Amino acid sequence: MRAVPTKPLSVDDYRARVGALIRATPVTLLPLEHCVGLVLGEDLVSPVSLPPFDNSAMDGYAVRSVDVATPVVELPVAEDIPAGRTDVVPLLPGTVHRIMTGAPVPPGADAIVKVEDTDGGEERVTINATAAPGTHIRRTGEDVAQGATVLRAGTVLGSAQLGLAAAVGRADLPVHRPVRVLVLSTGSELVEPGEPLRHGQIYESNSALLAAAVREIGGEATVLRFVPDDVTAFHERIAGHLDKVDLLVTSGGVSAGAYEVVKDALTGQGVDFVRVAVQPGGPQGSGLFQGLPVVTLPGNPVSVALSFELFLRPALLAAMGHQVIHRTRVKARAAAELRSPSARRQYRRGRLEGEVVTPIGGPGSHLLASFAAANCLIEVPEDTEVVAEGDLVTVLVLDASR
């Protein structure tokens, strides 16, 4: 007979249990194109200055400021300096060099006159403006000094950070490797999307939901085709995959009834099955199976989505080196009354507009359409059974733009 806990675990206690189970991923070198969204594992010190040499900020003419001290002067053009030229000839007094944006400033020049202030001449040029020393010159190290730390360990790498890494000459970076998650749904009633349904069957959606959720935060997901309610089939399906991943996540088969294949297959194998004081998603399981972290989720799709948000998402982000692992929490006024069961923390789907949040759909764990339409979760504490219209509530923001 299975032991049933006399008191469910709190949401916070179970979140901590899952967080402690999932190990930090190692730091490894990856090419820049594979680092988007990952976390830098070590400080990045620049081996070069940016700019690496004094260069022109404008298309125009490199001059000596003393030679253009009067507003209108005509001077010979001694050299052309396009961007990328490396054999820069020094500028002699009484001459100018035509120069392009980004090209190195020749020795002897101390200013750039932009082409708009000239007649654009190629052999001789009439200059119609004066230029103080330093005008339109980008100085060596003006942006980054050689030896400076340009990115700190723990930085989440986006387009700007990867552009900076490339600018200082890095083709790869030490990053926390993406967490590798094996996803398996269970249930004899499940049918692959795209196949015909018979009465009593439903399309399997949990693996698509979970795999996408893992990938959205920078992890890697491998999906195994779902298994029926058969213990032997369950073990056969995961065999050969466990040594290639950091975590196994299952959905379904963990409740108190018959045909609970995950519970039957993993009870006594290092996985503890518990109840959490949350609605939806009370039945949960976690532990080590053959040394591999395992988290088992309920089967209803909203329970799966919520369980990922509450328990897996923060644990996976932390394992990949992220400092910010929780959703933004704000206060909002409830646009309608909410009712919640005693002694359970309820999460309702909602739409947050300004400082008002409107519940979407009911509390049922099968109502996936309302989850897809939501941009937040409304948190109703364990000691609250009724939220009146207009009451302040805590909202977990799912929309990354807020």
From TrEMBL:
Q: Which GO molecular function terms does the record list?
A: metal ion binding; molybdopterin molybdotransferase activity
Look up the EC number in the record and give it: 2.10.1.1
| Top-level taxon in the UniProt lineage | Bacteria
Q: Which reaction does it catalyse?
A: adenylyl-molybdopterin + molybdate = Mo-molybdopterin + AMP + H(+)
Q: Tell me which InterPro entries the record gives.
A: MoaB/Mog-like_dom_sf, MoaB/Mog_dom, MoeA-like, MoeA_C_domain_IV, MoeA_C_domain_IV_sf, MoeA_linker/N, MoeA_linker/N_sf
Q: Which SMART domains match?
A: MoCF_biosynth
Example GO biological process: Mo-molybdopterin cofactor biosynthetic process
Q: Start and end of every MoaB/Mog domain?
A: 182-318
Q: What does this chain do?
A: Catalyzes the insertion of molybdate into adenylated molybdopterin with the concomitant release of AMP.
| Name of this chain's protein | Molybdopterin molybdenumtransferase
At the highest ranks, the source species' classification is:
Bacteria, Bacillati, Actinomycetota, Actinomycetes, Pseudonocardiales
